[in-house]
Amino acid sequence: MISNDIRYLLDSEAARINSPEFIADDPVQFPYRFETLQDIEIASLLSASIAWGNRKMICRDCDRMLALMDNDPYAYIMDEGYEDLPDEVNIHRTFFGRNFKHFLRGLRSIYKECGSLQEFARKIGAQHSTHPSWHLVAGMNERLAEANGGIGDSRCLPLNLDATALKRVNMALRWLVRDDGIVDMGVWDVIRPAQLYIPLDVHVGNVARSLGLVERKANDRKTVEQLTGLLREIRPHDPVFYDFALFGIGMESKKASVEK
Q1: Is 260 part of any domain?
Q2: What secondary structure does DSSP assign to the chain, as a single string?
Q3: Per residue in 208-240, pLDDT tens?
Q4: With a cut of 50, which residues of the chain have pLDDT below it?
């Protein structure tokens, strides 16, 4: 049960952070560059996939990654432009050209078969799952492996689906599915906002614990399920709205500690 005070804090912080001004400093800015569904999907998935570490570095590397794709991601994938990239070119931190090519080969297979990632999600029945993001990644991992000689790559998408919080994919799905017209783009209809899960990372997990929303120490799938389930009690149609609050409170705390 969430107290009235905590609920007021979550509501007010989420409303404060969920504003157009948020976009400019967040990786969500990159799918906004595009108009077609395929380009938006690819920019969302790839930008979210390298969204770990310093936000300025993430945005810098997302920009460079899209430049490698000639800022035309769907055409780049379908034309197999990635095969000319050196394996050792650095995309972001421990994500290299060989990982990037692995990812894009699998995406090409998906787009060639289904035309969009949304239609792939629909084809494999993600909309009927109680955990659609994990269901989607399980299907994508199969396609990625098939396109790469049967080999998986956890640098692209997590392979340990029973345990992973799936933070980056849950964030990409927030962008694609939530449809309030403020920050998130809401270009998908195959999954409803009510089905989304909180993108849980260290900062969000620490804030959730400090507010008494969860007790578990691990930032894993079980904690995501518990936290999202609790938030669904107060906003069943759109629990991931509170991702903005948990992120914002975390950033304010981090800023305060740095200033001290």
Answers
A1: no
A2: ---HHHHHHHHHHHHHHSSGGGGGGSGGGTGGG--SHHHHHHHHHHHHHT--S-HHHHHHHHHHHHHHTTT-HHHHHHTTGGGGS-TT-EEETTEEHHHHHHHHHHHHHHHHHHSSHHHHHHHTTGGGSSSHHHHHHHHHHHHHHHTTTT---TTTS-S-TTT---HHHHHHHHHHH--SSSSS-----SS-GGG------HHHHHHHHHTTS----S-SHHHHHHHHHHHHHH-TT-GGGGHHHHHHHHHHHHHHHHH-
A3: 999 999 999 999 999 999 999 999 999 999 999
A4: 254-260
In the structure encoding, which two tokens stand for residue 229, read together? 């389930």
Q: Which residue has the tokens 């945005």?
A: 59
Which residues constitute the domain of residue 160? 4-255
Do residues 89 and 56 lie in contact, with contact meaning Cβ atoms separated by under 8 Å? Answer: no
| Interatomic CA distance for residues 187 and 115, integer angstroms | 15
Provide the domain count of the chain.
1
